[in-house]
Amino acid sequence: SLNLSFQPSHVIYQSANSELWVSDVSNGRVAWFTHSGTDWVQRGTMNVGANPRWMAFNKRQSKAYVANQNSNSVSVIDVASHTITSTIDVGQSPSCIAIKEE
Predict the structure, then answer these.
(1) What is the H or E stretch that residue 10 is in?
(2) Distance, CA of 76 to CA of 62 (rounded, Å)
(3) Could you tell me the CA-to-CA distances from 35 to 9, 25, 76 in Å, in that order?
(4) How many whole angstroms separate alpha carbon 65 and alpha carbon 54?
(5) Neighbouring residues of 47: CB distance < 8 A, sequence distance ≥ 6
């Protein structure tokens, strides 16, 4: 378990870099953690949109997508650099992400 100083909504594991990503609905960000010994250690945060609810990685785990429910947007994050590369305006109150890759 993790002791967090914020309200989480969704957690995903990024296996390529062994990172745990947690959406922070209170502060409009995503925190990422790595495992150190027996503990998960927060390594940083990425500011996304208001009320981030759901996250998903593409097949190669090179990009992450975050549904920002109260911003009506999806943030696209470069996983290697932990930076937002774009913000996509979408319909009202996105709360889920589905990725179809061929």
Answers:
(1) strand 8-14
(2) 10
(3) 20, 23, 24
(4) 8
(5) 28, 29, 84
- The residue assigned the tokens 């309200």 is 7
- Residue 16 is classified by DSSP as T
CB 8 within 8 A of CB 20: no
Amino acid at 25: V
What confidence tens digit (pLDDT) does each residue in 37-94 have?
889 999 999 999 999 999 999 999 999 999 999 999 999 999 999 999 999 999 999 9
DSSP state of 28: T
Using 50, 70 and 90 to split pLDDT, how confident is the model at 96?
A: confident
